[in-house]
Amino acid sequence: MEIHTTRQVADRLGATPQAVAAWIRQGKFPNAYKLDPEGQTSPYRIPESDVIAFEKKRHPSAQD
Questions:
Q1: Residue 7: per-residue pLDDT
Q2: How remote is the C-alpha of 50 from its chain's centroid?
Q3: pLDDT band for position 63 (50/70/90)?
Q4: Which residues neighbour 16 within 8 Å (Cβ) at sequence distance 6 or greater?
Q5: Would the pLDDT of 39 be above 70?
Q6: Which domains are present in the chain?
Q7: SS3 assignment for 6-57
């Protein structure tokens, strides 16, 4: 399973890492997780499957 950082996802989606983090908090990447669940500043990791699902919802006409 491929895993991405918020920076990688932001670059891919044309957004900022802060926007990606906000989307994670909103539940748009349901399988995203923090490297240290107890750490306030721990970085998020986002599975490729979540990114693909987000892209499909964001651009429903883009079919693979």
A1: 97
A2: 7
A3: low
A4: 10
A5: yes
A6: 3-58 (1.10.10)
A7: HHHHHHHHCCCHHHHHHHHHCCCCCCCEECCCCCCCCCEEEEHHHHHHHHHH
Question: What pLDDT was estimated at residue 34?
Answer: 94
Please state, in angstroms and rounded to a whole number, the distance separating the CA atoms of residues 36 and 64: 34
Buried b (16+ CB within 10 A) or exposed e, 19-55: ebbebbeeebbeebeeeeeeeeeeebbbbeebbeebe
- Joined together, the tokens standing for residue 6 give 């918020």
Task: Report the length, in residues, of the chain.
Answer: 64
Q: Is 5 helix (H, G, I), strand (E, B) or coil?
A: strand
pTM value surpassing 0.90: no
Q: How many CA atoms lie within 13 A of 53 on its CB side?
A: 12
- Structure-token pair, residue 44: 């998020």
